[in-house]
């Protein structure tokens, strides 16, 4: 079954119908690792949160969001609560914001299972098993400890254990390692990927780091100003990015092939959909843009292994 299908998702907010997302399409198959990449403000978190039915206050949505068979935008409150408890889990940037600081880790890990009717003893056994899977050396001791007794990296492992406890169909990981130091980041990403595959959970991995996404994801969506501008297999992105924005992101990445080159930013400032120019939203920052790019939002075309929304897909800058 498809873990997540977002089709033609549009989002506006407020009386003025300020556009935030336009025609967003994202698919995550069962057990698939899918990246969602773009600069800050491009709409990644809005897209990911739509899978939980979490829309901004006063937002109007069009299109369709389906998670493991549930029509999320049409779901009632109770159905959404059930979905969040059993079928979708989320891991955020800051593990300290995800856990209750005054409750023991054991309670945090077992409450979701208890709510599903798993007996106390079995829930504890399951929590111990998960803590061992995420690499905690003393799982039994960890159950009795409080969040502040863990480092950020260790606490994020606890949160990941919690996210997998109910065997969700879909795991949303929104910048899950951004707050961690570099060595810990690599470990946590490796762990997430390994466990997600082992549990057969589909993962939407949200990050501003295209390199990282390309390295670990089966497929990657690149987002700009509230729209998907490219979709490609992770492996294809390094060699042959089709969209000029993807190319710019890749060149701006600090970690490309381990070089210690200075971080080169993408020229200009990222735009929200509301402030982006008409036609192709990237055209005012694009080295390849011509007058034709102003006429309409470019449709998607195939270029190599990519689908790219660009009239010049695959062309080299002059
Ligand atoms: N609740 C909201 N109301 C109005 N605008 C919002 C709201 N949430 C996000 N936005 C705007 O939508 C755009 C995309 O936000 P977001 O999805 O958080 O970006 P990203 O996660 O890619 O950094 C941003 O310009 C942001 O300011
Ligand atoms: Mg975000």
Protein architecture, described:
This protein has 318 residues and is α/β, with parallel strands linked by helices. The chain has two domains: 224 residues, Rossmann fold (3-Layer(aba) Sandwich), CATH 3.40.50; 73 residues, no CATH class. Helix content is 33%, strand content 22%. It is built from eleven helices and twelve strands. The strands form two sheets. It has an eight-stranded mixed sheet with strand order 6-7-8-3-9-10-12-11, with helices on both faces. Strands 2-1-4-5 form a four-stranded antiparallel sheet, with helices on one face. β1 and β2 form a beta hairpin. α7 runs parallel beside α8. It is globular, with a radius of gyration of 20 Å. 42% of the residues are buried. The mean pLDDT is 92. The structure holds adenosine-5'-diphosphate and magnesium ion. The site of magnesium ion has 3 residues, from α1.
Write the layout of secondary structure elements.
Layout: E1 4-13, E2 18-28, E3 33-37, H1 44-50, E4 59-67, E5 70-71, H2 77-86, E6 88-91, H3 95-98, H4 105-115, H5 120-133, H6 139-144, H7 152-164, E7 170-174, H8 182-199, E8 202-207, H9 210-216, E9 219-224, E10 227-233, H10 234-239, H11 244-252, E11 301-303, E12 306-308
Parallel strand pairs: 3-8, 3-9, 6-7, 7-8
Antiparallel strand pairs: 1-2, 1-4, 4-5, 9-10, 10-12, 11-12
The structure holds adenosine-5'-diphosphate and magnesium ion.
Magnesium ion binds next to helix 1.
Subcellular location: Cell membrane
GO molecular function: ATP binding
Protein name: ABC transporter ATP-binding protein
């Amino acid at each position: 079954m498809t873990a997540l299908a977002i089709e033609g998702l549009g989002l506006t907010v407020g009386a003025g119908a300020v556009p935030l997302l336009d025609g967003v399409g994202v698919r995550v198959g069962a057990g698939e690792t899918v990246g969602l990449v773009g600069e800050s403000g491009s709409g990644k978190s809005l897209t990911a949160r739509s899978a939980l039915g979490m829309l901004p206050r006063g937002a109007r949505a069009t299109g369709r969001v389906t998670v493991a068979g549930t029509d999320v935008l049409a779901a009632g409150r109770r159905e959404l609560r059930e979905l969040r408890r059993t079928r979708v889990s989320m891991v955020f940037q800051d593990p300290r914001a995800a856990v209750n600081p005054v409750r023991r880790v054991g309670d945090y890990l077992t409450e979701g299972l208890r709510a599903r009717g798993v007996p106390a003893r079995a829930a504890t056994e399951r929590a111990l098993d998960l803590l061992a899977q995420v690499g905690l050396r003393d799982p039994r001791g960890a159950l009795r400890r409080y969040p502040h007794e863990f480092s950020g990296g260790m606490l994020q492992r606890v949160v990941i254990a919690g996210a997998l406890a109910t065997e969700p169909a879909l795991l949303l990981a929104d910048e899950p390692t951004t707050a961690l130091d570099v060595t810990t980041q690599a470990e946590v990403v490796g762990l997430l990927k390994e466990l997600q595959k082992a549990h057969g959970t589909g993962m939407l991995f949200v990050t501003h780091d295209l390199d990282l996404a390309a390295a670990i994801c089966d497929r990657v969506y690149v987002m700009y100003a509230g729209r998907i501008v490219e979709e490609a297999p992770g492996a294809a992105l390094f060699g042959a990015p089709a969209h000029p924005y993807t190319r710019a992101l890749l060149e701006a990445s600090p970690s490309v092939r381990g070089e210690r080159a200075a971080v080169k930013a993408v020229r200009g400032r990222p735009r929200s959909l509301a402030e982006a120019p008409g036609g192709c939203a990237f055209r005012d920052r694009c080295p390849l843009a011509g007058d034709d790019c102003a006429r309409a939002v470019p449709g998607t075309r195939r270029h190599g292994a990519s689908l790219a929304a660009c009239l010049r897909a695959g062309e080299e800058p002059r």
